[in-house]
Design a protein that fits this description.
Chain A is of the alpha/beta class. Chain A is built from 5 helices and 7 strands, in the order αβββαβαβαββα. Classes of the chains: A alpha/beta, B mainly alpha.
């Protein structure tokens, strides 16, 4: 009898272990950038292509950096949530448009000049925001994805919460849904706003 | 007939995509190798040590994901700038974390990962050892010397079988 308890116990332990494993999201990889200063960059703004934006422009206030692209399917689900939250969270959301043209896979990049790619990226990004609303204070255009590499972007959308000292406090991978907004993002934002 | 044609169209569309992706990464490598074979060898070796975060069980060397090709381009650039292998690995870990290392490092947090199989083996071997010792003990019990009464019964029984 005793022996069967052992076997049953071992089986139950294994089942619990596997159940926990199944519940984990393999895409949710902890970012080493949390707790570190947001990597510096200067990128042209979508709204004013002759001007640039960098994280140091946001010093003194908490803000969100949301990585998006018009070819990103999950961004479609996320966008209405961003539009809604932008009206009530009281901190600016900055867009980082990631590889708008070359990330799409629809274009033969060998035939597209840098200039043509930039123009096409602006056109597509603007069309997306005109269609679906503008949650962003501004959007920085990461045409070739170099800044994305510095931020460890591996899947769009991704969102970074950055405090008033320019330190990344959280990275949220995947589309923000109302639940994640309530449970993860808003509590930290409330803390950062103090 | 139309259904069959549609099936084939889908089938070839489905297998066509990975084939073209492979072709492009092969041409990318061929072009770069012609340019600088030594750097390309180093790139190959390095990208076998790094995990592609998009298709998590592939290395950057094997993966056709776009991020992998971006990272290969990044590594190529860093090799040309004269950075050491360690510097390049550190660059990746600083951005993507330890998960980017295809072979996890041995350190506190990965102790269970590396030591786990050994611990399981030890548990198994000691369980087997204890079981065998207990069984040997039980076999020993039955082989204990017989009492005088049992001896005489045994002798009687043996006699019986001698003369059927």
């Amino acid at each position: 009898m005793n022996r069967y308890f052992w076997i049953l116990g071992a089986f139950a332990a294994l089942a619990v272990l596997l159940a926990v494993g199944l519940g984990l999201n393999p895409r949710d990889i902890p970012s080493p950038l949390v707790g570190k200063p947001a990597p510096a960059f200067r990128l042209a703004m979508l709204e004013a292509p002759d001007k640039t934006f960098g994280p140091e422009d946001m010093r003194g206030q908490p803000w969100l950096l949301n990585v998006w692209s018009s070819w990103c399917v999950s961004c479609r689900d996320e966008h209405p949530v961003l539009v809604q939250m932008s009206e009530k969270i009281g901190v600016p959301i900055i867009g980082l448009n990631y590889k708008e043209v070359r990330g799409d896979g629809e274009f033969d990049m060998g035939k597209l000049s840098a200039e043509a790619e930039r123009e096409l990226a602006q056109k597509r990004a603007n069309a997306w925001l005109d269609d679906r609303g503008k949650p962003y204070k501004l959007t920085a255009m990461d045409i070739d994805g170099r800044v994305g590499i510095d931020y460890g972007v591996y899947g769009v959308p991704e969102t970074y919460l950055i405090d008033k000292d320019g330190v990344i406090r959280m990275k949220y991978t995947g589309p923000i849904n109302p639940e994640a907004l309530q449970k993860k993002i808003l509590p930290l934002l409330a803390e950062l706003k103090q | 007939m139309i259904v069959r044609a549609l099936f084939f169209a889908f089938f070839f569309a489905a297998i066509g995509v990975p084939i073209s992706a492979q072709a492009s990464s092969a041409t990318e490598a061929a072009l770069a190798a012609a340019d600088d074979p030594v750097a390309e060898k180093r790139l190959q070796a390095l990208s076998k040590e790094l995990r592609c975060l998009v298709c998590q069980n592939e290395t950057i060397a094997d993966s056709n994901a776009e991020l992998a090709s971006d990272l290969r381009r990044e590594i190529r650039g860093m090799i040309h700038q004269g950075q050491s292998d360690q510097e390049i690995i550190d660059f990746m870990v600083a951005r993507y974390g330890d998960f980017v290392l295809y072979r996890p490092q041995v350190k506190g947090a990965t102790l269970l990962l590396w030591g786990g199989p050994l611990v399981l083996l030890l548990i198994g071997v000691s369980a087997l050892f204890i079981y065998l010792r207990r069984r040997a003990g039980r076999v020993g019990d039955t082989a204990a010397p017989l009492s005088a009464e049992e001896e005489s019964r045994l002798a009687a029984l043996l006699k019986e079988t001698d003369h059927p």
